[in-house]
Each structure stands twice: as structure tokens, then as C-alpha cells.
Design goal:
By secondary structure, chain A is α+β, with helices and mostly antiparallel strands. Chain A has 19 helices and 7 strands. Chain A has 2 domains: 316 residues, no CATH class; 154 residues, no CATH class. Chain C has one domain. Chain C contains 3 helices and no strands.
Chain lengths: 536, 111, 114
Amino acid sequence: MKDSFFRSMTWMHTWVGLLVCWLLYLIFFAGTVSFFRDEITLWSKPALHDAHVPQERIGLQHQQIIAGVEYLKTVAPESNRWGIYLPSEREPWLIYAYEKPRPEGKRFGGWNDYYINPETGAPIQQPRETKGGNFFYRLHFDLHYIDVRTARWIVCFASLFMLVALISGVVIHKRIFKDMFSFRKNKGSRSWLDGHNVSSVLALPFHIMITYTGLITLIFMLFPYPAMTAYDNGVRGLFNDVLPTNVRTQSSAESAPLVAVETVLDQVYTNWPNADITQFAIRDPNTASATITVRAATGTQVRDQTPTLLFNGVDGSLMAKTRDELSATEVFYDSLTALHTGRLANPLLRWLYFLCGVAGCVMIATGCIMWAKRIRERMKKDQVPSFGLKLVEGLNLATLMGLPVATSAFFIANRLLPITTAERADKEILVFFVTWLAVALFALFKRAKQQWIMLAWVNCIACISISLVNALTTNGNLISYVLNSQWALFSFDLMCLISAVLFIVQAKKLRTQLHAPTAPFRANRAGKSNLREQNT
Amino acid sequence: MSEILQFSLCLFAFNCFALAKFNHYRDVFKVRPTQTQSNQFVVVAWISILLSLVLSVVEYKGYGALLFCGYMALSVLILMIFYSFKTSWVKAMSVINISVILFSGLFFAIY
Amino acid sequence: MHAQSQKNSQLLMLVAKISQYYQSYAYQLAVVSRFFAAIVGGYLFTSVFTALMSITLPLKKSDAVLLSISLTIFIYSCVFIWVFAVKSLKTIWITILLTSSACGLSIALLKGWL
């Protein structure tokens, strides 16, 4: 292709990166936000704000499960599935859930949740219908409005390009390790290059790790062939072999009384003396095929598979159990997934994950801006910009600035849409996409520096209004969160305000450049980086 | 407390890496570093960074390595800001950094 | 006779035109085919290679599968980079097709499909 290895790598880095950078930005943005999925869900359900973790969290579990089964027995004896979700540090409430009657032809009817304050045992008012953090979690790999399978293939494809771009990036920027601490200010596309380098070197191990493990999470869709060759029934065969609890019994209509919960719980505590149970789920209760699944927290191990016990729901015998000792390969594979999801990370690690995620967003953003900037700089005075350049500039503005606006709009909609709206959760998502579309249309017509400034102000106002609207529509605000030590909510509000400040910085910076056209373009890096921080 | 020790060791290591570079050293101390000085900085940096890695892995097992990646990211970010925008503050920052290491190291040793 | 030669010259002109188009888009074509080789060829090679790995690795069945699955992405990205690093497109295609069919053949032999 190009003469030397070095030059062909540069070429590849540019084009592979440019081809998917906007999609990657969306994926990284949504993924970064998803590290705080539970906290965002908490924020978007004000009814749950007052729940706190009880002192004796683990000690209460035994009694909570028994009460839950009693409750479900009276409320939903006919339901296909029951679930008891026990309070944890990040989700400090108790849920008794049962599946609603299945509509014709559907395999699942949706959950009906009954929330309880674990401290007082009193029921909590039903929270508003919203997807909260789960929206971003799903957006991260399922996109939206597209068929799930297609979407995942697209995401896989983009991630693969990301990985390739990362590797070639290390090859071509050998010097990045040499002057990794310097950032040349006010040097036109040089500054953008430095921004690109710093944000990638900063978290290079993280970037490579997160991209690789991200692909691993979807690996059975991407490469089912090893499993298909080794097992007669493919991936299913592998799962049955690796996960002993992956047993599905045939549902039977014959009714049979449910085993006493104490029998099951006694066995759980014999198997795991200090169990921190997270979930107690019953399938086909009150029938002959009833099964009970008990899941526990993994603690400090890097493990994505939760320890699980599977019981027969009629006689209470133990049917299957996850192995305590995994083989080296299983540990390796499982830890890859665990590293990506970071579900069990402590708060410090979660924030570091978040920081690295933001660095990833900055890396992608500076990369695509740099491309457009360089072409512009190389252009002669009266040259007409090509269609490609205009397209890239338009997409840059629409994605880099549009996504944060849309995110803010999503959160504002969460507070302002009437609680009784039909299909409320979907409406919130509609607001997200409509806002984004509006910004994209705006970028279609004009995408000069003036428009960047305008959108920076829009973003700033949107971020402030999240906090304002929250303070006006709920009982809490920034100050009361500190007083009641509700740190998750406090961080969310604080992040909104910090983002707002950074957008102001960005707008100011861009305006000084506008007034001094000779001064070379300097990155609105700081501002940009923080767009991502829309969450706790 | 141990997190602070791990992080400040990591920051210290990267600070040393930066000072081992000719340009950065000259910016901070206004004199040229000798070759031996640069080598010493690199050696100290490697010792410190390995110590940080070992401490975090010993304490948090698998997640420790990740935590260490995060510390590295944060350190480079902080140093990048200092060296590019506030070179004159590097000395003060280094002093604070070293005293934090000593203090938290002492704390770590006692408890 | 006259009509024949006219037809011939038309054909010649068409050929010339096509080759001219090819010349002017040669670069773009080379780019497209290289991406094609990297994405599709890389996928093909990785699939058969890891499938072969999963049945030849001297480990427990599930372990062999999980290990080869964990390494797929690594292999794929190496192939991807290699495709862009090698100069001749012909070499790339020949290597990919030969190695893939060799792996495929060994799988077929090992599994007794032949």
C-alpha cells in the first residue's frame, strides 16, 4: 500500500479511526456513563432517594427472604416467576417482584416490582417508570431502534477497528512515550495532536483492556466456531459444560406445594457460611417443576459469574452449584468479562474507570477534530471545502456536542414528564433522540466556530438546568444531599455543575480565538472532556 | 490510607520519569541535568512504580492491577497539567508528594 | 467486413475505457480490496484457526474452547495489522487462503468429516 511499514500504519490509523470515530464516541460515552448505571438509576427514581442501607444488612437477609416468599404467595400465586432482590450498598432497597401474565406469543411478561425500605420494612411508593442508567447501558452495546443482533455486530465491528487503531497508534506515535508530559498550547493542529496523544497515553492500558474485553463480552456472537467445532450442540453445549447451574427444567402444569423456604436457606448457609445473598429467584412456583436459584455477591474476586445455587422447588434438594474452584483458563476468561463490566469495583476504582473512560472520549473526539483541522490548514485561501470535509465537520459538531445535549435532555425529561404519562420510559428515550436529531439538523446547515460556541452555551445551560429542575421537582438538592450524606446523588449534581463550568470554559476559549483569527486554534479540550461527565 | 500511599508512589515515579527528561528538568531547575542524575531519576522511578504496583496487587488482588492503571492515568494527567501550564509549581508539588509518601508510609508501617 | 471492424474498434474502445477507469480508480480499488482482505480474510482465518485450536489444545474440552475464544480477538487484530503491513495484495490473499484451507482441512480430518 504505502512504501514503508511505518507509513502504512499511519495511513491505516487515520482511515480506520475516521471511519468509525463517531460511533465509537457514542459507545465510549455511553459506556463511561454506564459505570455509574446504578447511581443514575437511583437519581432518576426520586421515590427511592430516601432508602438507606440498614446497619445489619446481611443479618436481615434471612428474614427478608422469608417475608418476601410469604408476600408473593399471597399476591401472585399464579405467576411464572418470582424474584427477591436484596439490598446492596449501591442499590439500598428491597424488591419483591413477580412476572406479569404473559401476553399471547411472548416469552416474558415483564416484572411487577414492589419496593420496600429495608430499614423500616415499610413499602416505598412505586417509582416513576424510567430506564435510568439502564438506557445508557443498553445504548452502549445494543444502540437503539435497531435490531439487537445487527446492532451488536455493528458495535463489534467498530470495537475491532478501535483495537486496530490503538495498536497502530502505538506503532506510529513511538514518540508519545518520549514527551508524554508536554502539551504544546496554541499550536493549531499540533495542540490537537498533543491532546490526542496525552489522552491516549494517559490510559493506554485501560483503552486496550476495555476494547479487548468488550469484544470478549460479545465473543459468542462474533466467533462461535471454536465452541461449534468442539461441542455437538455448539455454544449451548459449552455453557452446559462450564456452568453447572445452567439447567432449564421443562415447565409442568401439575401443581405442587413449594418447599419451606427455611429448608432451602439452611442449605445455603451450610454451603456458604457468610453468604451475602443478592438474589433469590423462583421459577414456576407452586408447580411440580419449581426451581429456586440463589445468587451471592462475589466479594473482592475478579469474577463476573456470580456464585449460584440451584434447588428443586418441591423437595428442596440441591440440583446444581457453581464450582468454587475454577480452572486457570476459566479464571482467565471470566476475569476478562469482569474487567470490562467492573461491577464489583470499589468507589475509588469506579472513579478511576470513569476517568479513563473520559480520557477515551477525549482521545476519540480530538482524533476526529484533528483530521478536519489538518485538512483545513492545508487548504489554500480560496479553495472550496470538499464534501468529505464538510461531512466530517458536520458529524463532529453533531456527535461531539450533540450527545451531551441529548443526555442532559434525557435527564431533564426524567424530571419534567408527568408521572402518569403512558409508556413514560420510551418517551424519555424519544426526547433523547429528538434532541440529538435537532442538533444534527442544526449542524447540517452551519458548523463553523460560531456554532460550536452556541452549542457550548446550550450544553452549559442544559447542565445547570438538570440541577435546577431536580431541586425544584424533588425534595432534595445539592445542599440537602450533603447534609443527609447521599453521596451518589450529590456527585451526580456536582458533575452536572462541573460540566457546566467546563462548557463555559470551552465557549470562552473558542470566543477568544474567534476574535483573534491569527491566533492558532487551541483545543477546547478541557471543555470537551467534560461533556462526558454528565453522570455521577 | 494504603490507596493514598499507592497513588502517591505512582505519582512520584512519573514525576521522576519526567525529571529524567532533559527538557523538563531544565524547565524546573533552570540548569541542565547530568547524565548520572538522569539515570538516578529513572532508577528511582522504576523502584517507586514497581512498589506501587506490588502494594496495590497485594492488597486488592486482581482489581489491584486495574487500580494501578487508574493511578497511572491520574498521575500522568496531573503531571501533564503541571509541566505544561504551571512549571513553577512542580517543586512545591514534589515536596508535598514526598511528604505524603513519608506520612502515609509511616501510617501504613504502624498499622 | 466494414461492420466487423467497426464492432472490433468499439470493443477495443470499451476495453480501453474500462482500463482507463481502472487506472484512475486503481488506488481506491486497492484500498477497498485491502480492507476486504483485512476484515473478511482476517475473520475467515481467525475462525478456522481458533476452531482448530479448540480441538487440538491439550486441555480439558471446555478449557480449550474458552482459551481459544479468549485469544480470537488477539489473532484477528494481528492478522488485520499484518494485512496492512504487507506490500503485495497477492501475497496476502494467497497466504490467507492457503493457511485457512490448511486449518479447515485439518479440522475436517480430525473430526472425521471426510
